[in-house]
């Protein structure tokens, strides 16, 4: 089957979903009010609560939720065949992710910009709030570890991407100053910044001394490096330290100084990157050489497909961004449809090209199975195959292979870095909330909470000696990241359903995807915790078993509590919306 036809079908479904389904949800279910005073205006402080143009906010929101997950998840899930991955990405985006991201944004806006964790108290009860906050805390901790691991390894594998990525930081700070202190427009400076990044990428791809390759500084693979570690391990350690210092600073700065302008640049990078890949697809017109379905997988697709694709279809982390940062920047309530639902559509478009890039990369099916011989092999190869496959699509517009590979790796790293520092910022919020809850004043201080977030994230990615050796803590957490992420999405949908029911509105559009997601995710997590991770013969399984068991018990507890609220006869009292 032609890759162009697959892309066309996906785009048509996304367009119909946004034009008609999101409009129905906005007008009939959420009932957006253009005159409603949003938290960005009501609590404007110039740091977290900042009224923001919807296009700029969409850029921040989308690049915060995109990361590497909507690329990596679908790239792995192609193991079961491209058709199952394709179907879940397009249907999950339209009927689950769009409603979830849109709904958590509206729910937070209507409740002082509070996070879904805090809102669990009001909607379900105090105990549910504490349990939910701990689930979120574990999830963002895993996000930090997973994405730090991804970025560090990409910097090692593609050293030409380092300089363009770091050049973006001072450019974004300059843009933030020009826009918010001198009232300049953001569009042209952002495009110029993106041009500077890609020009640097071209030069770095061609000129060796512009490639920041820490491995070579330790004498090559196997040499004794820092602290007696090998060259690659030493480079990995240094990159983790650099990233942790960066996210500490980035997550404590006011959002206008770095977060918003950098994310706006990355939103253009998304458009340019996706444009390159889809136009390249049009010119190359490759066939889907990966199998439609894998007839003999070593692991069943049910239920693992849904937690593997994760952010490519629906993600609980999106709800954290919607209610944690985006709701505090929403200028007008009707903007929530564009920011929330269309943000999910953007994620689906990215996941779609990930599937196509992987499924068209191989010469034939035999070559595909040589790389994707098992589900474990797929986990290890997915991201690398996407980068090579995407570079192959980019060659369709005449880009040389080395430049195309560098640009694709820059896109992946930029999105992952955006997610990383947003996640650390969210973790700081949660730690502060828990500090208030348990009366630990020190944890309510911004720098103390950020230090706890950064140090614990670094420890999680560095300390476990996983199957790939030193520093593979982030890699080994990926299976648990997927299940915890989907559980969080299911619980967030449940909170939206409770809120809609109390408002006397139809909540079926939320309830149906919630039930499906809860069933698949709890099934997968029970299967993994009981039958895979309970064999605590190594550090990796022990860590997964402990974290997985805690999340599973907390999730079941919250679900039972929320189910009791949903089935309780509705009172005549409707919550007062702020």
Verbal overview:
With 578 residues, the protein is an all-alpha fold. It is 72% helix and 0% strand. It is built from 22 helices and no strands. It has helices spanning 3-30, 39-42, 54-66, 69-77, 82-109, 116-123, 126-157, 162-182, 187-206, 231-252, 259-284, 301-309, 316-324, 335-359, 365-371, 375-394, 401-437, 446-462, 473-476, 478-502, 508-531, 539-567. Helix 3 packs parallel to helix 14. It is globular. The N and C termini lie far apart (52 Å). The relative contact order is 0.18.
Please give a quick description of this structure.
Residues 571-576 have low confidence and may be disordered. The protein has 578 residues and is mostly helical. α4 crosses α14 (335-359), α5 runs parallel beside α13 and α21 packs antiparallel against α22.
């Amino acid at each position: 089957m032609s890759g162009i036809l697959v892309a066309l079908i996906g785009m048509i479904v996304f367009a119909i979903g946004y034009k008609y389904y999101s409009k129905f949800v906005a007008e009939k279910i959420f009932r957006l009010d253009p005159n409603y005073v949003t938290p960005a205006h009501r609590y404007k402080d110039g740091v977290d609560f900042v009224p923001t143009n919807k296009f700029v906010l969409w850029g921040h929101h989308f690049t915060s939720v995109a990361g590497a997950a909507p690329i990596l998840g679908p790239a792995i899930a192609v193991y079961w065949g491209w058709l199952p991955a394709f179907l879940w990405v397009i249907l999950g985006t339209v009927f689950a992710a769009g409603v979830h991201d849109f709904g958590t944004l509206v729910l937070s806006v209507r409740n002082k910009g509070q996070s879904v964790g805090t809102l669990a108290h009001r909607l379900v009860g105090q105990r549910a709030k504490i349990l939910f906050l701990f689930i979120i805390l574990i999830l963002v901790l895993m996000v930090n570890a997973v994405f730090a691991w991804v970025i560090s390894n990409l910097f090692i594998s593609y050293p030409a991407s380092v300089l363009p990525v770091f050049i973006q930081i001072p450019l974004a700070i300059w843009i933030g100053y020009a826009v918010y202190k001198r009232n300049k427009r953001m569009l042209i400076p952002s495009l110029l910044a993106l041009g500077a990044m890609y020009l640097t990428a071209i030069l770095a791809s061609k000129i060796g001394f512009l490639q920041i390759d820490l491995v070579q500084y330790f004498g090559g693979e196997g040499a004794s490096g820092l602290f007696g570690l090998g060259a690659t391990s030493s480079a990995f350690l240094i990159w983790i330290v650099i990233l942790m210092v960066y996210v500490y600073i980035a997550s404590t700065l006011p959002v206008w100084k770095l977060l918003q302008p950098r994310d706006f640049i990355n939103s253009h990078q998304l458009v340019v990157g996706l444009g390159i890949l889809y136009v390249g697809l049009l010119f190359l017109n490759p066939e889907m050489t990966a199998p439609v379905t894998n007839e003999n997988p070593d692991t069943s697709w049910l239920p693992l497909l849904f937690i593997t694709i994760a952010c490519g279809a629906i993600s609980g982390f999106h709800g954290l961004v919607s209610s944690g940062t985006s709701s505090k920047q929403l200028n007008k309530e009707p903007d929530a449809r564009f920011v929330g639902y269309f943000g999910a559509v953007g994620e689906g478009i990215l996941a779609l090209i990930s599937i196509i890039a992987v499924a068209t990369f191989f010469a034939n099916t035999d070559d595909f199975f040589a790389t994707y011989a098992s589900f474990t092999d797929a986990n290890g190869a997915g991201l690398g195959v996407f980068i090579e496959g995407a570079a192959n699509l980019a060659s369709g517009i005449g880009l040389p292979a080395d430049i195309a590979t560098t640009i694709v790796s820059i896109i992946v790293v930029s999105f992952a870095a955006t997610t990383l520092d947003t996640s650390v910022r969210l973790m700081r919020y949660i730690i502060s909330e828990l500090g208030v809850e348990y009366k630990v004043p020190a944890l309510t201080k911004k720098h103390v909470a950020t230090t706890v977030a950064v140090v614990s994230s670094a420890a999680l990615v560095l300390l476990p000696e996983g199957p790939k050796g030193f520093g593979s803590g982030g890699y080994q957490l990926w299976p648990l990241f997927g299940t915890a992420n989907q559980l969080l999405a299911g619980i967030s949908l449940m909170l939206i359903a409770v809120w809609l029911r109390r408002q006397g509105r139809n909540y079926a559009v939320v309830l149906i995807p919630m039930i499906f997601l809860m069933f698949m995710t709890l099934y997968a997590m029970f299967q993994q915790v009981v039958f895979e991770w309970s064999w605590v013969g190594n550090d990796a399984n022990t860590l997964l078993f402990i974290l997985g068991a805690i999340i599973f018990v907390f999730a079941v507890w919250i679900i039972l509590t929320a189910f009791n609220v949903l089935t309780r006869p509705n009172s005549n009292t409707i919550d007062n919306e702020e």
